[in-house]
Design goal:
The chain is an alpha+beta fold. The chain is built from eight helices and four strands. Bound molecules: flavin mononucleotide (FMN).
């Protein structure tokens, strides 16, 4: 599959088959992810991969803490978003709504329940960065995660980046024995897509280029 097809086809997957992913396949996609560029080749990314009973232990804890704290999803900005950004998140909601409705969930329930259970994905990946790094190094992490999502898609695997559960960082660190020196910045659900599920029956769109590019000639 050529790179442009992979980029065009990849999408976030929120329902997975109950089918294990081999360790060889996981290692292969990480081999490609680690080829991402980083400032002075620092490669500041580190990942914790969990599946099987350990992942189940994590999910049990996340469900418990979520029932207590009920963190909801939002842009996480200090000030209200400009309309051009807010409109995009409303549009996602419109695209998802009919499909989520079929699952009998509200949007928030869909995102929250799914985020806590990693959408039943067989593999959960926790993305970390050492706290020694300044926030600008999140850029490098983002590049590596992009490579990972694309490599997974090229191998026939599906993913969903999940930011919501980073609110439960202490619990994740506790269950998976992650050092306090590491910051948990993202999690990623990985597995084989359940193509029949309504949760995967939509594709988000993108802004026209004229809205995001400024030219000076
Ligand atoms: C940093 C980050 C955090 C995200 N967090 C969540 C999440 O908590 N729950 C969720 O369902 N999707 C999450 N997503 C997926 C986005 O909703 C998705 O990427 C966006 O709607 C565009 O759709 P696409 O990935 O299918 O192209 C996240 C994506 C990114 C990049």
């Amino acid at each position: 599959m050529d790179i442009f097809s992979v980029m065009k086809e990849r999408k976030s997957t929120r329902a997975f088959l109950d089918k294990p992913v081999s360790r060889d396949d996981i290692e292969e996609i990480f081999t490609y992810a680690s080829m991402a560029p980083s400032a002075i080749n620092l490669q500041p990314w580190e990942f914790v991969i969990t599946y099987g009973e350990e992942k189940d232990r994590l999910i049990t804890r996340l469900k418990k803490v979520h029932a207590e704290q009920k963190v909801s999803c939002g842009p996480g900005t200090a000030k209200p978003l400009q309309e051009k950004f807010a409109g995009r998140s409303r549009k996602v909601l419109e695209i998802m709504k009919p499909h989520i409705f079929k699952l009998g969930l509200t949007f928030n329930k869909f995102i929250e329940e799914g985020s806590c259970s990693f959408y039943g994905a067989p593999v959960a990946i926790i993305v970390t960065i050492d706290r020694v790094f300044p926030q600008i190094r999140y850029l490098d992490i983002g590049l590596c995660v992009s490579y990972l999502l694309l490599a997974a898609h090229a191998k026939g695997l599906a993913t969903c980046p999940i930011g919501l559960i980073t609110a439960y960082e202490d619990d994740i660190a506790d269950v998976l024995n992650i050092s306090k020196e590491k910051e948990i910045v993202l999690s990623i659900a990985l597995g084989y897509a359940d193509e029949e599920s309504s949760a995967n029956a939509f594709k988000t769109d993108r802004e026209e280029l004229s809205k995001i590019l400024s030219w000076y000639e």
